[in-house]
């Protein structure tokens, strides 16, 4: 679930060479950097870039690992971070302001996220009558059966909920965009 990325370049320091590097740990669900380290190796006559890089990274690896561990602890405590875009199909006769028992559909969706996210953590960052963008949505690490959760698996319960009365939205298309992002299109199959 973590993408490890290292970039480097060789720099000249007089007659010696050094390796300047950046090490990143990226959460594969949110694509956010969760740990990072940068540095430059000691100048050396050593010509093996791999050796110089390994020595330079080794000096920062403990702090890097502490930041990775903190991310895992946060994730187990507060849930995994994902995001959603909920759109209304151009051909659907309703929109996110359509009324269901006195509540706009956007309010109903907002309430569902409040009830189902870890610690009620999520942000609606954009909303109109045709779309809603939710970021920093914290979902449980595992579903009720103990399977690893991702954006697609988590959103299945919202789809089932919206298909029931009084909503009866039978046409909902789920577009999976990786482990940490889904698009729901209401009114489209």
Characterization of this structure:
The chain is of the alpha+beta class and 189 residues long. 28% of the residues lie in helices and 37% in strands. It contains 4 helices and 10 strands; from the N terminus they run E-E-E-H-H-E-E-E-H-E-E-H-E-E. The strands form 3 sheets. A 5-stranded mixed β-sheet has the order 7-8-4-10-9. The radius of gyration is 23 Å and the shape is elongated. The mean pLDDT is 93.
Low-confidence stretches: none
Distance between the termini: 30 Å
Give the spatial strand order of the biggest sheet: 7-8-4-10-9
Q: Roughly what fraction of the amino acids lie in strands?
A: 35-45%
Give the biggest beta sheet.
Answer: 5 strands, mixed
Level of helix content? 25-40%
What pattern of helices and strands is seen along the backbone? EEEHHEEEHEEHEE
What's the overall average pLDDT, rounded?
A: 93
Tell me, what's the shape? Answer: elongated
Number of strands: 10
Whole-number radius of gyration?
Answer: 23 Å
Give me the secondary-structure category.
alpha+beta
Count of DSSP helices? 4
Task: Provide a compact summary of the structure.
The protein is built from four helices and ten strands; from the N terminus they run E-E-E-H-H-E-E-E-H-E-E-H-E-E. The chain has 189 residues and is α+β, with helices and mostly antiparallel strands.
Descriptive terms for the model:
single chain; 189 residues; alpha+beta; five-stranded mixed beta sheet
What is this structure's SSE topology?
Blueprint: E1 2-13, E2 16-27, E3 33-40, H1 49-58, H2 61-78, E4 80-88, E5 99-100, E6 103-104, H3 105-116, E7 123-127, E8 131-139, H4 151-163, E9 172-176, E10 181-186
Parallel strand pairs: 4-10
Antiparallel strand pairs: 1-2, 2-3, 4-8, 5-6, 7-8, 9-10
């Amino acid at each position: 679930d973590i993408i490890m990325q290292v970039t480097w370049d060789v720099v000249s320091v007089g007659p010696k060479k050094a390796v300047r590097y950046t090490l990143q740990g990226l959460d594969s669900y949110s694509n956010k950097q969760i740990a990072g380290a940068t540095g430059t190796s000691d100048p050396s006559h050593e010509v093996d870039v791999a050796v110089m890089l390994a020595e330079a990274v080794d000096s920062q690896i403990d702090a890097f690992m502490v930041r990775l561990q903190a991310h895992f602890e946060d994730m187990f405590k507060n849930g995994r971070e994902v995001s959603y875009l909920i759109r209304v199909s151009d051909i659907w006769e309703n929109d996110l302001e359509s009324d269901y028992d006195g509540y706009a559909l956007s309010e109903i969706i907002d309430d569902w996220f409040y009830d189902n996210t870890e610690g009620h953590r999520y942000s609606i960052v954009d909303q109109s009558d045709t779309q809603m963008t939710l970021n920093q949505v914290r979902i449980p690490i595992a579903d009720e059966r103990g399977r690893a959760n991702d954006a697609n698996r988590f959103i299945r319960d919202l789809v089932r909920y919206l298909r029931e009365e009084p909503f009866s939205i039978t046409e909902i298309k789920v577009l999976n965009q990786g482990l940490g992002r889904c698009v729901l299109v209401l009114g489209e199959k």
